[in-house]
Design a protein that fits this description.
It contains eleven helices and no strands. It has 261 residues and is mainly alpha-helical. The chain has two domains: 1-65; 76-253, no CATH class. The relative contact order is 0.13. It holds the Pfam family Rce1-like. Residues 111-204 form the CAAX prenyl protease 2/Lysostaphin resistance protein A-like domain.
């Protein structure tokens, strides 16, 4: 069997099995652990962890010589990831403190689920596996690698919409957000902690302040989110130029790469 065909066959099959397992078993596992422990936060983590098993098995079949932590890009600097993400999202924090009221009643378990758990596991599934593995281990370029993962990432957030206009807004915001997280992850030398903490801080500020009912947000909320994104991009570009580190993503690597990273 051709190596490239084998790679994509295993990759697609593994994700399909994961998708079915997640679709049919996630809520069952969630409810079982919730009843057992009385904690919806613990249940959320457990359900994600169990349903991730098909992806982890797929990675070991695809690239058996590398450790799972390496394939998921979790061996990179935690400190660099959290520092860059915090500094980059400071405009969101400051502006929300100025323009929005804090949420009056905070559900701590819900906050954990929507920040820590969602950010960590969604970045593993979408950025590290669906996008990262394709970009790192095939000749697919940036746009080619992120397209399916970003479309799926946007699709899983559409439940928040209440009408067609809002549905389009949520789709565009989450699709572009996925592209941004992917770019930041790749250009920080495949440091998944960067994407995890960008995701975490953006969700955290959105949850702590009364910004909007869903991700589509409002003018002020989205304006300062965009400013944070632009600041993060500037910080990464300046860091790479200062350290004379070549950019992973260039005009020549948008669709097809001439060589692997």
């Amino acid at each position: 069997m051709n190596k490239t065909f084998r790679f994509f066959f295993i990759f697609i099959s593994g994700f399909f099995i994961y998708y079915l397992f997640d679709f049919y078993c996630f809520k069952t596992i969630l409810n079982f652990i919730k009843e057992l422990s009385g904690s919806k936060a613990l249940a959320h983590v457990a359900a994600y962890a169990v349903t991730l098993i098909p992806l982890l098995v797929t990675l070991k079949i695809l690239i058996p010589q590398k450790k799972i932590i390496t394939l998921l890009s979790l061996e990179q600097s935690f400190f660099k990831g959290i520092t860059l993400a915090f500094i980059g999202t400071v405009p969101m924090l400051i502006s929300y403190l100025i323009f929005f009221e804090p949420v009056r009643k905070l559900d701590l378990q819900g906050l954990f689920i929507n920040t820590v758990s969602s950010a960590f596991f969604e970045e593993i599934i979408f950025r590290a596996f669906l996008i990262g593995i394709l970009y790192r281990f095939t000749r697919l370029g940036f746009i080619s690698s992120i397209l399916f993962g970003s479309l799926l990432f946007a699709q899983v957030h559409l439940y928040q919409s209440s009408d067609f206009k809002e549905l389009i807004e949520i789709f565009l915001i989450t699709f572009l957000g996925s592209a941004f997280f992917s770019w930041a992850y790749i250009e920080t030398d495949f440091n998944l902690w960067t994407a995890i903490f960008l995701h975490f801080f953006m969700n955290l500020y959105w949850e702590l302040f009364d910004v909007a009912d869903n991700v589509s947000g409002n003018w002020y909320g989205n304006l300062f989110k965009i400013i944070s994104i632009l600041l993060t991009i500037v910080l990464i570009i300046n860091y790479k130029r200062k350290n004379k580190t070549p950019f992973q993503i260039t005009g020549k690597s948008l669709f097809i790469k001439t060589k692997l990273p």
